Amino acid sequence: MATQTMTMDAPAQTTTILNYHLEVARGGAAVCTVQDKRRPHEHKEVVVENIRDRLDEFTLDKQGFEVGPFDTSVTDYEKDEEFTGQYYKDVIEHVKTATGATTLFAVTHTLRRLQYADVVAAEKDLADDAPATGPTSNRSVHVDQSYIGAQLVRDYNFKMLSLPEEQIEKLKGSRWAIVNLWRPLNNVTRDPLACCDARTVSENDLASVEADLPASLTSMKVGFSYAAGTRAESWEVKAGDGHKWYYAADMTPNEAMLIKQFDSGANVAKRTPHCAISTEHDHGPTRQSIETRVLCFWEDQ
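and the corresponding structure tokens:
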């Protein structure tokens, strides 16, 4: 069971169990179906520090993530025209301010409103190869794209955006990154999102996981939209002794967490492992969130 060290206002840290990558040779599996929640992992107890009182110490380019205020007028997340219109504009403005990128494209989003335990229960009698019933908190330590996967996302969206070839070549020659803006839709009282300091994760800790996705998933506007056509490749992360984990307690809808998935730049955080964690003091309603993927380019770098 998770235990916490308490301060006057919020837990200073939480000790929990993380689900790390287990190699196939040791009994693991790599899937994007119902079996994903049934497959074995390597479990490791870790301490996750609460950064609520020192948010300004954490940045995208240093640790690979940051938390700060976020403002939007959009409240109807089922109304696609409003959401991908105004909300995407708000996301782009926020990420642009945070990164200094010169050209940005919001390319997809995932809406999570289902309780993890409820999804597991709903899928318990389904076949291993059945499609997952819906997006929920991800309990596996991962990075959304591997280095190859990031290029797949970039090049697929160049095609989908119908960019001129001249612009595409210019952007390909620039520093570029994939940044996710994760934001809760209600006050977070359970399943907080935790990130690992990118500097503490070696290249040897990364295991590529490839998936060939059916059209029924890749064509969805929300949920399992990987924004990379029918093929996707991500990193799962092997357990490492030096990993340093952090979370911001009590996040609200007026805040957002930026998470680096990939960055071609030098001397900056390149990729940030992350996952939802459970704590002893989880309570209240299902954590709901919206996560938007943004392609960033620095045409001056």
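(Above: one complete record from the training split.) The first helix runs from residue 80 to 99.
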